[in-house]
Amino acid sequence: MKRIGIYAGSFDPPTNGHLWMIEQGARLFDELVVLVAANPDKKSFLTERQRQEALRGMLVNGPANVRVEGMNSGFLVDYAVRMGATHLLRGIRNATDLEYEKPMARMNARMAPTIQTLFLVPPPELEGLSSSFVRGFTGVAGWQRWVKACVPQNVFNIIAQVKGSV
Q1: CB 79 within 8 A of CB 111
Q2: 24, 57, 150, 153: least surrounded by Cβ within 10 Å?
């Protein structure tokens, strides 16, 4: 049976932490779909198209078994069933992430018992990194130095263009 994983998120913007998760997922699954999902609870920094472009750019020389797609509405687990996925991949940086993810994983398991949620814990140097953290830096003088350390170069270029710093 082909192992298909889905790593979904808003990726607004994609970070080095997301890249680490994608690299791990590519090793674990025969196929990994990186799904840019709309989150109505969040105000977007980058458009969905920019986020997909950023992710594809990050993966230009990456694993061949990874593809980037978008999803504008509906339940992730329903999408996963349609795609024939076997797993949902989620990152757990801290206890807060775990408390948020556990009930989601349980609900997804009820809705689609054949799909497992797999949690990965990133290395310590990525533990505090999040898209919100990166977005928070972009308004501060000298932000470029800090953001460059948190995202791949192609993502930095997109952020700089959005911020008018190119």
Answers
A1: no
A2: 153
